[in-house]
Structure formats: C-alpha cells, structure tokens
Amino acid sequence: MGNMSASDLDVADRTKFDKIFEQVLSELEPLCLAEQDFISKFFKLQQHLSIPGTPVSDTEETDGGTLTKPHNIGGLQSAYSETHMIRQMMIKIFRCVEPELNNLIALGDKIDSFNSLYMLVKMSHHVWTAQNVDPTSFLSTTLGNVLVTVKRNFDKCIVSF
C-alpha cells in the first residue's frame, strides 16, 4: 500500500505541474498576440503588408514620435521589414519570456524527468497553434526555440532509461 500512495503522489505532482505549465502557455499566447496586434496597428505597420508595392515614405509621424522606414522598399521587402520591426519591438517588450520559460522547463525536469514528456506534448501543440495563427510571429518563434530545449530534455530523459 505504501508504493500505491507514493505512486499516487507522483501522479498528483505531475498533474499539478502539467496544469501550471498549460496555464502559463495559455495565458502567454493571447497576451503576446494582442501586444503584437497593438504594435502593428499603433505604428500602422499592417497597412503595407496587405498592399504589396505601396510606396513608403522615408518617415511616418506617430503621435509625438517618428518611425523611420528604409528607402525604396518593394512589396515583399516592405512586408519583411515591417515584420522584422514588429519582432524587434516584441523582443524588447518580452525579452524575459524565453529565459523564464526555459527556467520553468528546468524546474519541471528537476521535479520529475517524466515532466519532459508532458512538456513536449504541450509545447508541440502550442507551437503548432501559434504557427497556424502567424508563422513569423514573436510567439511562434519563441515557442519554437523553447520547444527545441524541451526536445533535448526529453531526449536526455529517454537516454537515461
């Protein structure tokens, strides 16, 4: 009976960590997507994404600030440049997200190496979802980077058995 309670405790701990991990990812997604959408609209970066070949002025005024843009950009270069600008702003705002997710992953592995399996399943799902929404988004890129860490940890877990 003693083994049964220890086993039940392990399952309870795994379930608790799994719920926390899922909650972090579920709350992070809408926050990042909303912020990226806000940046795109506030700096009027999305208007050029939908109309390739639209001439772009050297500077564009934005409520007290100036947003500079590269000279003579074609449609695809403009879309890439604007996507890059959005990503750079998101990196500055959310620079701690990736390291903190990696810390959470390390904690999960420290608690129980089987958590790497739970994290692999959850991260794969969230990366797939984020890439379906916008494959070039900050969220998609960040979750993809973290997924690589999760996969490495899972590989280590498998090798240790």
TrEMBL record:
Signal peptide: none
A single cellular component GO annotation: plasma membrane
Molecular function as annotated in GO: phosphatidylinositol-4,5-bisphosphate binding
Boundaries of every Exocyst complex component Sec3 C-terminal domain copy: 74-156
Gene Ontology terms: biological process: exocytosis; Golgi to plasma membrane transport
InterPro entries: Sec3_C
PANTHER family: EXOCYST COMPLEX COMPONENT 1, SEC3/SYNTAXIN-RELATED
Name the record gives this protein: Exocyst complex component 1-like
Naturally occurring in which organism (per UniProt): Thamnophis sirtalis
